[in-house]
Amino acid sequence: MARKETAADAANPGRLKQIALTYKMTRKADKKIGLVLAAVGIVTFGVFLAIGFLIGHPIYLGILGFLLAFLATAIVFGRRAERAAFGQMEGQPGAAAAVLDNVGRGWTTTPAVAMNRSQDVVHRAVGKAGIVLVAEGNPNRVKSLLAAEKKKMTRIVADVPVHDLIVGTGDDQIPLKKLRTTMLKLPRVLSGPQVTATNDRLRAMGDLMSNMPLPKGPMPKGMKMPRGGPKLR
């Protein structure tokens, strides 16, 4: 019991520190977050307290109002923090891969399965909906990169549906904040063993990131790829 209590006590400061850090990060993008949270809490508590006085049970409704005010504040804080996080990630390299890592259980994500010299990237996720290819980068360049990767997937796993998405704010693109929701709405057509078999087949094929180390920073001007060297997929 003592060990469990000690572990719980040690975890609480960590949670509080994480909440405080999240609030600070959210406040940088959402200056009104403090006023909004205060308004939600006060209004929710005030409404239930007023109802309590009207029906003659102010203490009971006051306690209930306090609990619901805390819950409502937490929900609003979570949503605005998520919105602020997506706003800061929008347009950043690798943002789509970060979202894919948090889609949920049942999904296996492999970042940067295809990349070109302009650093346009295609990520891959495998789940019960099949294979989902998510591209991020310049819309004009990334379409050909995505089409090539999709063609390769259909050749390797012909019996598995392949979906392709482009992250962005333009036409026929998926906003970063809606990527997770879009993937979860895809129809589930594969069983658990089929998902495992698909992952094993793709893992055996190998990925760009595991087969070729990527240099840091932009490619120097005038530098050419050596003939016969590894080709980008």
Describe the protein in words.
- By secondary structure, the chain is an alpha+beta fold.
- The chain folds into 2 domains: 15-89, no CATH class; 95-211, no CATH class.
- It has helices spanning 2-29, 33-55, 58-89, 95-100, 139-156, 179-184, 192-205, 208-211, and strands spanning 108-115, 121-127, 130-136, 162-166.
- Strands 1-2-3-4 form a 4-stranded mixed sheet.
- Strand 1 and strand 2 form a beta hairpin.
- The termini are far apart.
- The model is unreliable at 207-233 (pLDDT under 50).
What is the secondary structure topology, with strand pairs?
Blueprint: H1 2-29, H2 33-55, H3 58-89, H4 95-100, E1 108-115, E2 121-127, E3 130-136, H5 139-156, E4 162-166, H6 179-184, H7 192-205, H8 208-211
Parallel strand pairs: 3-4
Antiparallel strand pairs: 1-2, 2-3
Helix pairs in contact: 1-3, 2-3
Region (Disordered): 210-233
Keywords: Membrane, Transmembrane, Transmembrane helix
Transmembrane segments: 33-53, 59-78
Cα distance, first to last residue? 55 Å
Number of strands: 4
- If you average the pLDDT, what whole number results? 78
Largest sheet: 4 strands, mixed
Helix content: 55-70%
Query: How is the largest sheet built, in terms of strand order?
Result: 1-2-3-4
Q: Any idea what the shape is?
A: elongated
Which structural class best describes the helix and strand composition? alpha+beta
Count of distinct structural domains:
2
